[in-house]
Amino acid sequence: MYCSQSICPVYLSLLFSLLAPVVRAGEYLSGIRWQEPPVVSPGETNAQPPSDAIVLFGGDDLSQWQNGDRWTVRDGVAIVGKGQIVTKQEFGDCQLHIEWSAPVPPKGKGQGRGNSGVFLMGRYEVQVLDSYENPTYFDGQAGAIYKQTPPAVNAMRPPGQWNTYDIFWTAPRFNEDRSLASPAYVTVVHNGVLVLNHFELQGDTPFTRPPRYDYHGPKGPIALQDHGDPVQFRNIWVREFKPAVGSQERPPYIRDGDKETPIEQ
Ligand code: MG
């Protein structure tokens, strides 16, 4: 049959016959009572801190950091100085935004060029390195979890341009007897490019021995490394991450009108 209109009786009846079994099957309900997610106002751009972020460096000073007075702050930028800087506050699961720029002109090569690092909980390093046309061992280039995995791709901008890291961190959990209950996971987006996707860490990231987990508390500081290179940082903020909260008030069920049918588990 030919129908010139989009609302064609033949098509409508076909559509209803397709949908009918779905409608008759009722609605799935999880039985979980969810709390309303808190409202967060996003920044003007996704690089700007949302309303619930803790600004660790907004361009003025490094007062949020221990040892901050030994680094240089100039024109809204923090430049690596003597020794690492460590946040005064501690964090567990979190979202961290940080921008960094490799020195110009580039100096040195391999691990000696624009080396710094973002340490979650003071011990798990996301490598910062000038990896623009600068070969080194792959699990030591920018975006690597140092000595554990390279980034999936090299998304580096040239020296002098700003790089962004958006780091999504799941802290490791420990049992009461101090053994590992669950490892740390990290997702890293480098300049908008996903380079690590829920990577499971094998432990910490030292230079001299294999990674391992040593018991620590549920929170730890964020540290930025001094590796002797004047890497620049700006616009650093962090959000503690708490998943949505709900309680299973009844088993899952199907609701069809007044009829409620528990789902066989
Ligand atoms: Mg480093």
Describe the overall structure.
The protein is mainly β. The chain has a single domain, classed as Exo-inulinase, domain 1 (Jelly Rolls, Sandwich), CATH 2.60.120.560. Helix content is 6%, strand content 33%. It has 1 helix and 20 strands. The protein has one helix at 9-24, and strands spanning 27-29, 32-34, 54-57, 65-66, 72-74, 77-79, 85-87, 94-101, 116-120, 124-128, 163-170, 173-174, 180-182, 185-190, 193-200, 223-224, 232-240, 246-248, 253-256, 259-262. The strands form 5 sheets. Strands 3, 5, 6, 8, 11, 14, 15 and 17 form an 8-stranded antiparallel β-sheet that branches. It has a 5-stranded antiparallel β-sheet with strand order 4-7-16-9-10, with no helix packed on it. The chain has a 3-stranded antiparallel β-sheet with strand order 1-19-20, with no helix packed on it. The longest helix has 16 residues, at 9-24. The chain is elongated. Residues 115-117, 127-128, 225, 227 line the site of magnesium ion. The site of magnesium ion has 7 residues, from strand 9 and strand 10.
Q: Count of DSSP E strands?
A: 20
Beta-strand content: 25-35%
Shape: elongated
Q: Specify Rg, calculated over alpha carbons.
A: 25 Å
Write down the overall mean pLDDT.
93
Low-confidence stretches: none
| Helix/strand order | HEEEEEEEEEEEEEEEEEEEE
Measured between the Cα atoms of the first and last residue, the distance is 47 Å
Give the C-level CATH assignment.
Mainly Beta
CATH superfamily: Exo-inulinase, domain 1
